[in-house]
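step 3/5: co-fold with uridine-diphosphate-N-acetylglucosamine
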Amino acid sequence: MIKILTVIGARPQIIKAAALSRAVKNNYSDDIREVIVHTGQHYDENMSKVFFDELGIPNPDYNLNAGSCSHGRQTALMIEGIEEILLKEKPNCIVLYGDTNSTLAGAVAASKIQSPVIHIEAGLRSFNKSMPEEINRILCDHVSTLLFSPTKSGYDNLLKEGFKENNQPPYSFNNPKIYHCGDVMYDNSLYFGEAAEKNTTILKDNNLLKNDFILATIHRNNNTDEPLRLNALFKSLNKIALENKIKIILPLHPRTAKLLPVNLSTELYNSIKENDYIKIIAPVSFLEMTALEKNAALVMTDSGGVQKEAFYFQKPCIILRSETEWVELVKCGAAKITDADETKIIEAYNYFAAAKNLLFPDLFGDGRAAEFICGEILKYIS
Ligand code: UD1
Ligand code: UDP
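step 4/5: write tokens
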């Protein structure tokens, strides 16, 4: 029996961790014991607790309650707490997801005391270091022992950064092993896809009809914090909704909710509020989000996870950023990058509204990435 210490903190990590916890419970309960640390980076009930309840994730063994503060302070609080827990629990490895400050904190705390780091969602790059996430993911990858990339391009990025394909065990942060293994988020979308429509009423509650609405999310820091960008994004949504008489539902991240009245012009803010086609709601549960994604005509988002889920459910996606780590989605024509540029956003909407026979090839594995990852951890970590 080995002990793994899973660190989660932000919404998408809690969701991703559900896939591994499920694989441990169903297939590896005699071999792997999971201790869960919640950093407290996300703490509102609809950003955290709702996912534990809905996705059957065991309650965290520890909560560091780091909360919201500056990047340095938030990460430092987490590092201190994770180090203490690592020293007490003495796990065989630490398991980290994605690219948030919680990921970075886990990577620093564990690597400094030479506890092996397992990085799930390794290798992804935006090649834009002004994103806090790009710094977090690069630093985490470079102290990891087992690196699981969900995409071929992520795996290739690691090779370009000097990781070797042919390292032999025993693996360590000086001799890491890299994988292209599929996406744990795809595991979840397959697993929960059916329940999402059966067990939620989100479509009915919001009077939404299949393929007759747009699902939008906006939370990326440069979009929320830069008034010019936020105004351009909301101006585009307003225009698309009014001109096409199409509903847009927008489950709003708390970061955006706080900044909307501050950074939008009063005129636009009022116009959005008065626009009957735009429905802004609080963040929804994963099953509700999945039901929205499955039934939307189109998705507009700056979220990494939502881009991919749109693809899993064969929905075109407008990416409200200047680049994406999920380059495959754009390459196969199912997504378009528009940045926060009103003209490009409207052009992309018109393009997808008329597009037929878009391609959504199988790019993200077979829905069993989490089981594969558990098997590899057991093989190489002792
Ligand atoms: C973080 C991640 C980002 C990820 C996103 C997922 C980093 C650097 N960023 O961004 O990569 O895409 O999570 O959602 O780690 N807030 C609340 N309640 C909460 C959580 C946050 O009100 O439960 C508000 C606070 O005002 C806070 C702000 O949202 O200051 C930002 O939260 P934070 O966790 O710092 O970053 P995110 O923008 O959520
Ligand atoms: N999500 C959710 N409810 C919402 C918005 C998003 O459950 O109101 C889910 C979404 O389905 C995906 C994940 O949260 O699985 C994406 O998280 P987010 O957009 O916050 O972060 P990112 O993926 O950009 O890091």
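step 5/5: annotate
The chain has a mean pLDDT of 97.
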